[in-house]
Each structure stands twice: as C-alpha cells, then as structure tokens.
Specification:
The complex is a heterodimer of chains A (428) and B (287). Chain A has 2 domains: 180 residues, D-Maltodextrin-Binding Protein, domain 2 (3-Layer(aba) Sandwich), CATH 3.40.190; 198 residues, D-Maltodextrin-Binding Protein, domain 2. In chain A, 42% of the residues lie in helices and 13% in strands. Chain A has 18 helices and 12 strands. In chain A, strands 1, 2, 3, 4, 7 and 12 form a 6-stranded mixed beta sheet that branches. In chain B, helix 1 crosses helix 13. Chain B has a single domain, classed as MetI-like fold, CATH 1.10.3720.10. In chain B, strands 1-2 form a two-stranded antiparallel ribbon. Chain B has 13 helices and 2 strands. Chain B starts with a helix and ends in a 9-residue tail after the last helix. With 287 residues, chain B is mainly α. The chains are: A alpha/beta (428), B mainly alpha (287). Chains A and B meet through helix 3, helix 4, helix 10 and helix 17 of A and helix 12 of B.
Chain lengths: 428, 287
C-alpha cells in the first residue's frame, strides 16, 4: 500500500515529535527516571580539571556515575574566562551548574553557593590541611573544598644555575637577584614571569603579594582598610623592580602563565615562580626542552622569610542545584584518595589530601610535592575579598608602571593604596 | 502597520529593551557583591563619577587616539589599494580574493594570529626583522605603552582595510569615464585628474567610509582582550574594553553601563551622520 504523506501531515508529524521531545524524560526508560544529571563548570586542562574533563581516573568516574545513577556533564572553559562566565551566569539568574570551580571568588559569589563543606565526612576533613578552607570560608561557613595543594614555588633550570656559579637555589632576596643577574647571558634571562595581566590570582598584583608577605607586610589592616603603603609594600615592589634587568623583557607583555612557562621550558630563562603543574610539563619531552634539568625550591626569603600565595582551586555547589546531595557525593569522589593519587600521577596537579601527599609513589613521581609542603609552612595568603578583581587591577596596574620605570616603587605603592582605599570605601 | 508589527516587536525586544535597560542600569548603583545583586537609584552619580575617574579618561584618550589614527590610516591605505585594484593591472580577481583574507578571518582568530606574530620570544616579526638585519635582538612589541597601542592600531588597520578598500573600489568604478576624458581634453595630468575628478566624485563614499570606520574603531574589543588585556598599565585600555572590565570583571554593573552608554551616544551620533549622508536628496534645480 502506498501511503501518501503530504506536506500538512509532514508538518503535523514534525510538530508532534517536537512536542514529545520537550516532555521531560520522554526518551528515557523507567529505570533511568530517578537518575540525576549533574552539570559541572570546570577549567580546561592543563589547568586543574576533574576526571572526565582531564584524562585521569576515567574508569572510576564511569563507575561512580553508574553506581550513583548520575550523569555528569562538563562545561569547560579556558581559565582566564571562568570568572566572567560565572559572573554573567549568576547575575542573570541563569547559572546552569550544580558544581562550579572557584579560585578565590568564593566571597564574591557567596550568596549563590551553598556551605556544603561544613557537612563533609570528618575522616575526609581531617585528611585536609585546615588552612585549605581559609579562602572558601565566609562568615564562618565553609562554601568549598580545595582539591589541589597549589602554592607558588620557585622552578629553575639546574644547568643554567650551575653555569652561573650557583650550586643550589637562592635562599634570600640578595641571592635571588645575584643569581638572576648571573644567569642573564647568551640571550637568556635569569627570571621570567607573566606581568601582562594585573588581575586575579596569577596576575601581576598577586605576584607582588608574594614579595609583600616575604617582606612581612599585609594588604589589609585589622580595620579592613588597605595597609600596604608601608616599608614592606615598597620593599616588595622594589625587589621586583630590581629583578627587571635580569627578567625576560617579554614578561610585561605575557598575559597568561603559559606564555612565561613556555620561555622557561624552552631554556630561554633560568627561574620562575609557578604552580605545581609545572613539574609534569617540564619533564614532558613533548612540551619541554629542559627535561631532567628542571627542579623546584621554596621561594627565596625576604626580610621576614619565605612566603607564597594560594591558588585556592576549590569545588563549590550552587544554591540553585536540585541535586545537592549527589553534587556533594561527586565532590567527595573528586577528593577520594585514589582519585587524588591519579590526579597527581597523571596530570601533575598535587593532591590536597595529606595521606596522598605522604604516599611514597606520589613523592617519587612528584618530588616537588615535598617542596610545596615545605612552602606551606610559610605564609601563603592570597588576600581574597569580594572585590578581589577590582583590587588586583588597581594594584597590578601601578606595579606595572613601576616595573616599566614610569613611577618609583614608593609612588606606585602610594597611588595603589589610594586606589584600593577608594574601592574599599565604595564597597561600604 | 499590521504587517510591520512583527518586525517592530522583534526590534523592540532585541534593540530598544536592552538600550532602555542599559540606561536605567546606568542611573543605578548595581553591584554583584557577596553574590547578591544590589540596586540603588543614584541618578547621574555614575556619570559624574566618570569625570573623576583617571582610568576612564585614560581609556577615553586611548580611544580618541586609536580612532583618529585608524580612520586616517584606513582611509588613506584603502584609497590607495582601491586605486591599484582599479588599474588595468590590478583588475585580476586574484588580487581581490587576496585582499579580502584579513577581513574574512574571525576576529578572535585574527587576534591570536597576531599574538604569535608579535610574541617577544617566538614571534615571526622578530625573526623576520632579525634575518633582514633591521634589529639585533628581539623586541617586546607589546611591552611599552606607546608600542603596544600602536601595534594594536596596526593590527586593526590590517583587518579593516579590505572592506573599506572594496567600498572605495565600488565608488571608483562609478566615476564616469567621460569626466576623465573631458579632463584629459582640458590638459589635466593624472594627479590633476585624481584631485579634480576622482576625489570630488568619491566624496560621498569617502565620507561613508570615514563614519563607518569611526564607529567600528569605537567598538574594538577582541584585539585588546586577546593581545594585551588593556596593559601594560592601562596603555591599551579602550573604552569598550573598560566597559567590559568594569561590568563583568569588577561586577559594577551600573558604572559599566554608564561607560557603555557613553560609547552608545558617540556611536549613535555617528550612525545618525551616516544615515544623513545616505539619505536620498533631490538635486537642486531637478524636476
């Protein structure tokens, strides 16, 4: 029998099919009706990403989804775009995620998040450094769990350092400057960093905060007002200025850490501050020309000792999530000891769990873990606030002016303090 | 009216509503602080804040320099390119296809391309100039305020020339040949023909090109975002980038809207000028 299928019937069938697809669960069987669909907002590797978004623990991740009746979908973005995507999504009330990555932005997005970390199992919490909750706690409530021990440490090219006459990494500012100066030869530079973007963690201002703490200073006083127009603030910036003749001049134009990392891995610079992921990248022949020559050390001490900043990479759960319990379970899976171990072995991002950091296999594969743990004994405050981006742009822009020589360190710090004071006062 | 109603509704939804909402936002203190959106009417407070904000003035000056230089360079280069393409030797389709490539590249891809060309360590520009003996060591093209702003300008000129050149080529091809023949008969040389025939006839096209290019130069964002992030030290912060940074990075939605409204007002005036230039007119004395 020939069935005539005219245009009216075609349109009608199409409309019916369209209507059916809009009905929730139409194509899903009864068994899957209870399953939860979790949306996770994550950085794109090589920045720290979870199983499924990065290549590790993929089998365990598939098993977790099957066991928990959950499907996990990732939205991944390059790190520099994460904050603004979250800001627009939250502000418009259209954030589609159950779990979001956070990096020092917890105070900023606090009322869109749920303080789930207060309910994490005690055994897990006891295995995390207590200080790891510092940047995710607002008003005494814990909104996130840090999933990687991520402090800046000094990475350096041993071969270039030996050629410059130094047997070990510099331990003080004076040694640091002398070492950088001696390493600057034959078209290479002693130091490289990305000073191009003033904002955020890993921006120009945050690097100055490292030196500030090494000098014994703080960004804010007890009253919450900026307190860095001080000898320590100026000394920190002066140290950065003093390093400039030995710093790759391209540093002022590198907007991301990867730009600076590439210079070190090409053997064109001797030292840089970087995050722990650098270890794997530096020892991967596909990415690095200094395989076997790179090592890491605690950052050189300033007037008051060594100090760093915290990368504060954490998982948070949105208030709008309809699957709060499953979302917390997924984060607990991300923090599972075996997953944490694979995280460091396969991606280079260190675990946050103390038991995993102490694992001999981990210490053998990531010798820098011991260095990061040692660095963690010194201050590593990132001074995050609800207006962190605005504050870091104000400070970072002045730091850039000093690095370029258009202002003295003292002038730049005084102007930065004025700018941040105005921001804090506007904050109210 | 009935037939144009759907179009008017769509226009109202996608054009008028955002404009009105943006103006209303600019009259409020709207901040996403601590996760909560706070709104408070402050009248012209955001606009008066503009006057005392040194970063705004820096961005305004950068934008003014960028726009003026871009319009001058794009107009002159495009006119030159159009004249070459209009020459019998330049009429091959190959040249026109070659010309259109920079314009056809997606804006962000174009910016990334130039990011690598200008890279201080691995950039093609440094390698080329070193191999030609022009420079002895690598230059940081985006490292100083003057150099960074001017390289942004060069990159945007490179991208903008093709369209304007084609616009001018179309204008050139509309110049009646009889005028050139008459000028020749009057003893005019090539330069005099250009000054007294080509330029006056193309006045309308050139004016449109200038207005369009000014509008486009006010909207530059992708290059700044990818290449410099406004740095070093706000040297390449243009108004459009500043509006983005204040709105989405600082989450100061009211103040960001005020900056965006300044750009809108400038663009609106230029667009009105553009419409006026294109408006059909009766020639005096014509019946």
């Amino acid at each position: 029998m020939v069935h005539n299928f005219n245009r009216r019937q075609f349109l009608g069938t199409g409309a019916l099919a369209g209507a059916m697809t809009t009905m929730p669960g139409w194509f899903e069987g009864g068994a899957k009706a209870q399953s939860a669909a979790l949306n996770v907002f994550s950085p794109l590797p090589p920045d720290p990403a979870p199983p499924g978004a990065a290549k590790f623990s993929e089998e365990a991740f598939a098993k977790w989804q099957a066991d928990n009746g959950a499907t996990v979908a990732y939205e991944t973005l390059a790190w520099p775009q994460l904050h603004d995507r979250m800001a627009t999504a939250f502000a418009s009330g259209a954030a589609p995620w159950d779990i979001t990555y956070n990096c020092g932005w917890v105070p900023e997005f606090e009322s869109f998040l749920t303080p789930y970390a207060d309910n994490l199992p005690k055994a897990l919490v006891d295995d995390l450094p207590a200080t790891s909750f510092a940047t995710t706690t607002v008003g005494g409530k814990r909104y996130g769990a840090v999933f990687t021990l991520s402090l800046l440490t000094l990475f350096y090219n041993k071969e270039l350092m030996e050629q410059a006459g130094f047997k070990e990494a510099p331990k003080t500012w004076d040694e640091f400057k002398a070492c950088a100066k001696e390493m600057t030869r034959d078209g290479r530079f002693g130091f490289v960093l990305n000073y191009g973007d003033p904002a955020g963690i890993g921006g120009t201002a945050s690097y100055w905060m490292v030196f500030l703490q090494q000098a014994g200073g703080k960004v804010y006083g007890e009253d919450g007002m900026p307190a860095f127009k001080s000898d320590e603030g100026v000394a920190a910036l002066q140290m950065m200025v003093d390093l400039m003749p030995s710093t790759d001049p391209g540093s002022i134009s590198y907007a991301g850490i990867n730009d600076a990392t590439n210079v070190l891995l090409a053997g064109r610079a001797g030292m840089m501050m970087n995050w722990p992921f650098m270890w794997n990248a530096g020892n991967d022949p596909k990415q690095s020309q200094i395989v076997g020559k790179m090592t890491s050390a605690v950052l050189p001490a300033g007037l008051k000792g060594s100090a760093s900043i915290d990368g504060t990479d954490a998982w948070t759960i949105t208030k709008a999530s309809k699957n709060q319990d499953k979302a917390q379970k997924l984060i607990e899976f991300y923090l599972d000891a075996e997953v944490q171990k694979r995280q460091v072995l396969d991606t280079g991002w260190l675990p946050i769990r103390l038991s995993v950091l102490a694992d001999p296999e981990v210490q053998a594969k990531a010798p820098n873990a011991a260095v990061v743990l040692e660095q963690a004994k010194h201050p590593y405050d990132s001074f995050v606030t609800a207006d962190y981006n605005q504050v870091t742009v104000a400070i970072g822009t002045e730091v850039q002016k000093a690095l370029q020589g258009s202002k003295t360190a003292a002038q730049a710090i005084a102007d930065a303090q004025d700018a941040v004071t105005a921001i804090v006062k506007r904050r109210g | 009216m009935f037939f144009v109603a759907p179009a008017l509704i769509v226009l109202a939804a996608i054009l008028f509503y955002p404009i009105v909402d943006s103006v209303l936002l600019a009259l409020q203190r709207v901040q996403l602080a601590g996760g909560a959106v706070t709104q408070e009417w402050i009248g012209l407070g955001n606009f008066t804040r503009l006057f005392s904000d040194p970063v705004f003035w820096r961005a305004a000056l950068n934008t003014a320099y960028f726009s003026v230089m871009e319009v001058i360079l794009v107009t002159l280069i495009s006119l030159g390119v159009a004249l070459l393409l209009n020459h019998p030797f330049g009429r091959s389709g190959f040249f026109r296809i070659l010309l259109i490539i920079p314009w056809a590249i997606a804006p962000v891809a174009n910016a990334v391309l130039w990011k690598w060309i200008l890279n201080a360590n691995y950039g093609v520009l440094n390698a080329l100039l070193k191999s030609l003996g022009v420079i002895d060591y690598n230059q940081v093209w985006l490292g100083t305020p003057f150099s960074a702003l001017n390289f942004l300008l060069i990159v945007d000129v490179w991208k903008s020339v093709p369209f304007v050149a084609l616009l001018m080529l179309a204008g050139l091809q509309r110049v009646p040949q009889s005028l050139y023949r008459a000028a020749y008969m009057d003893g005019a040389g090539p330069w005099q023909s250009f000054l007294n025939v080509t330029l006056p006839t193309m006045r309308g096209v050139i004016a449109i090109a200038i207005v369009l290019q000014t509008i486009w130069s006010l909207r530059v964002f992708d290059l700044v975002f990818v290449l410099t992030r406004g740095g070093p030290a706000d040297a390449t912060a243009l108004l459009n980038f500043l509006a983005y940074r204040v709105t989405f990075n600082f989450l100061d939605l009211g103040y960001g809207s005020a900056i965006a409204n300044v750009i809108f007002a400038l663009t609106f005036v230029l667009a009105a000028l553009y419409v006026w230039l294109l408006w059909p007119r009766e020639i005096k004395g014509a019946r």
